[in-house]
């Protein structure tokens, strides 16, 4: 599974932050849905920059809807 990490920019500024790959072990995904978009649901989460680190940072995780077709998923990741 590939997880893409990107810092969320202010809405008024272009998001120029690089995409970074992390592993699932660096995330604790809460059972709290924050919202939903066309491509999938967004959940509250905690992010660790190193596995099992005591430092946990609040994050929002978008889980891409598996029913969305592959072309759309590729477009989503490219444009994100
Ligand atoms: N960082 C965040 N913090 C809190 N809530 C968030 C965050 N990101 C997204 N959400 C919630 O999830 C909802 C969907 O966000 P998302 O970014 O997926 O929207 P979208 O761009 O319309 O989706 P899509 O690209 O799939 O059409 C938002 O309307 C908001 O309620």
UniProtKB/TrEMBL annotation:
Key word Nucleotide-binding present: yes
Residues that bind ATP: 62
Molecular function terms from GO: ATP binding; protein kinase activity
PROSITE patterns for the chain: PROTEIN_KINASE_ATP
Domain Serine-threonine/tyrosine-protein kinase catalytic: 31-78
Domain of life: Eukaryota
One Pfam family from the record: PK_Tyr_Ser-Thr
Keyword annotations: ATP-binding, Nucleotide-binding
Protein name as catalogued: Serine-threonine/tyrosine-protein kinase catalytic domain-containing protein
Native organism: Acrobeloides nanus
Highest classification ranks of the organism: Eukaryota, Metazoa, Ecdysozoa, Nematoda, Chromadorea
């Amino acid at each position: 599974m590939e997880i893409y990490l990107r810092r969320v920019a202010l809405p008024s500024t272009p998001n120029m932050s690089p995409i970074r790959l992390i592993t699932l072990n660096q995330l604790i995904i809460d059972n709290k849905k924050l919202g939903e978009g066309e491509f999938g649901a967004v959940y509250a989460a905690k992010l660790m920059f190193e596995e099992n680190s005591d430092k946990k940072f609040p994050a929002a995780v978008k889980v891409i809807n598996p029913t969305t077709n592959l072309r759309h998923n590729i477009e989503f990741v490219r444009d994100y």
